[in-house]
Every structure is written in C-alpha cells, then in structure tokens.
Amino acid sequence: MTDLTKIPVTVITGFLGSGKTTLIRHLMQNPQGKRLAILVNEFGTVGVDGDILKSCADAACPVENIVELANGCICCTVADDFIPTIEALMALPQPPDHILIETSGLALPKPLLKAFDWPAIRSKITVDGVIALADAEAVAAGRFADVAAVDAQRAADNSLDHETPLSEVFEDQIACADLILLTKADLAGEAGLAAARAVIDSETPRKLPMLHVTDGIVDPRVLLGLKAAAEDDIAARPSHHDGHDDHEHDDFESVLIELPEVTDIEDLVARIQRLAWEQDILRVKGFVAVAGKPMRLLVQAVGARVRHQFDRPWGSDARRSRLVVIAEHHDIDEAAIRKVLGA
C-alpha cells in the first residue's frame, strides 16, 4: 500500500480545557468535502467530550464514526483498544477520508505516535500532523509554564531543581507538535498572546508556526493536509519521558462524583471554584440534573474558571448528575471533594 492510499490522521493534543472539543466541532461543521471519523480519548469514565461531538454528527461525520475510549490512555492500551478501534474505523462500509484523534488533556502525545508504528496499521494510516492547543490566557498568566517565574524561584531557592509534572505535560505536548493554536485569544488580548508566544517559543525544540484562535474557528485547510508523517519523525520530537516506559497518568488521578439534583446552579459553580482554590483541582467536567429543567446542564471547569450551559434534553438517558474531578495524584482527597460538592 502506497502513501497515497494511507488514511491521514490528525492528532489534536493540548492541556486541560484548551479547547480541543470546540476545535473538532468546528472541523465537523466544515469538513471540506471529507468524510471524517473521530476518536476521543478521555481521562475518567464519563464521556463528556464524545457526547458533545455525537450531538453534532451529520452526513460527513455520522455517529458510528465517533468513537470514545474512556477506559484509559490509548497509548497504554494500544493492543486492546487503539489498534482494534482504528481497524474498525477503516473497515466501515464507507471508510473515513480523515481521522481526528482528540487526546486526553493529560496525555503525552509521543507514546501515541509510537503506536502508529505497529505493523497492523502502519501500512494503512499516517499521522498527517500533530496540532497542539494552548490556552493563551492561561499560558500568559504563567499557570503551566512561566519560564521567567521558574527561573526566578530557582535563583532564590536551590532546592527547586525539577519541574512539576504539569509543566512537563505542557512542554511535551508543545515539543511534539507540527502546529500550535493559541486558543481563547479573545480572553488573552494582544498582550496576552504576545506573552504566550514568548513562553511557547522558549519551550519548542524547533521553530513552529503559531496561530491564535477564538471559539475554535480556523480554516480547516490550515490544519488538515500537513503531510508531516509524524510517525517517521519521532526523534525530532523530544520528551521529558524519553527512555522511560512510564505513561503520563501516573501523576494524575480522577474521581467520579454523583450528586443529587441541583436546585441552585450558581451555588454549584461556587463549590467547584472552592475546589480549585482549596484543593488545587485542575479540571471538573460532566452533566448535571437541575430541578425543574428538562435539559441537562453541561459543566466544564478549568481551575476556577467554570462554564456551564444547557445542551440537550435528557431524553431516554437517566437524570443523573455526574462530575469527573481531576487533580495531581497527591492532591486528590475524595472525601473532601464530596464534602465541598455536597455529594
């Protein structure tokens, strides 16, 4: 099978809440005549992102072309989950013209690239490109990789001789990319975008193109058709974890919290914000049943920034409030989380 017959795959990586799902929704709505398939790998057992994308399914990307893998990191379960899923997508009566993979926000993309070297799929697919999303406002504020602040702290305290796992995840995602999207540009402003560019430039092993994006709106022709063949270029994408077999989720943990029906949305928002401030919770996402409302409430939080909206009726689904809470391993205190959320 020649390269011309390989199905191109775009890997979309990026930190927690950087806008990966929003970007994919835009690509689904603007497929440029391509038949798409989407593989969503989430951290935690509630398939929030996959559910959002399935609600946008259409002829160019039908529901059966959208697959969720929420049982673990796809680079940790290559033989059991990833390879069979890719093979199933390629075996569809109408195979996709292009596959999009949305990684977990905690994922290191390089182990996933190595999975594309498996004999079962190497001759059939190619990594068209790795797109890394970075929340420009967050990066500019130094929440994940404020190089100047780290250097200043190290100068003041000799005991600070290593990076945190969070910054390593961010740096590995940037180092593996072919193109970087600075998202939430409207929130960052011109000064924030410039600051974010400076931080990312200092982290990249090679010069990378960067675009700023608001609400995931970017011309698909810029993202698809990069022809990077990233699986053949792994050595040029350094990782903090090169030479190690450990995978990224050792440093992170998630808990699933089930809640009763909520009567006061703003009170729930305040409780989620408390988790960010008091327990360093990184991410909260899920669906909530609100008393007297037939629609389910989609809740997504990055740190103390909480967004919520009614997305669709519950329909035949059970009215259950379920939130996935993600933090670094040493910060997870399930009992305390349940108490704050009123579970």
Descriptive notes:
The structure is a single chain. With 343 residues, this protein is an alpha/beta fold. The chain folds into two domains: 3-246, Rossmann fold (3-Layer(aba) Sandwich), CATH 3.40.50.300; 251-341, CobW-like, C-terminal domain (Hypothetical Protein Yjia, Chain: A,domain 2, 2-Layer Sandwich). It is built from twelve helices and twelve strands. The strands form two sheets. Strands 3-2-4-1-5-6-7 form a seven-stranded parallel β-sheet, with helices on both faces. It has a five-stranded antiparallel β-sheet with strand order 8-12-9-10-11. The longest helix is centred in the middle third of the chain and has 19 residues, at 185-203. The chain starts with 6 loop residues before the first strand and ends with a helix. The model is unreliable at 145-151, 157-164 and 245-249 (pLDDT under 50).
Total beta strands: 12
Number of domains: 2
Instruction: Give the end-to-end Cα distance, rounded to a whole number of Å.
Output: 54 Å
Order of helices and strands: EHEHEHEHHEHHHEHEHEHEEEEH
The unreliable regions are: 145-151, 157-164, 245-249
Q: Mean pLDDT score, rounded?
A: 78
What's the name of the CATH homologous superfamily of the largest domain?
Answer: P-loop containing nucleotide triphosphate hydrolases
The CATH class label of the largest domain is Alpha Beta
Helix-strand category: alpha/beta
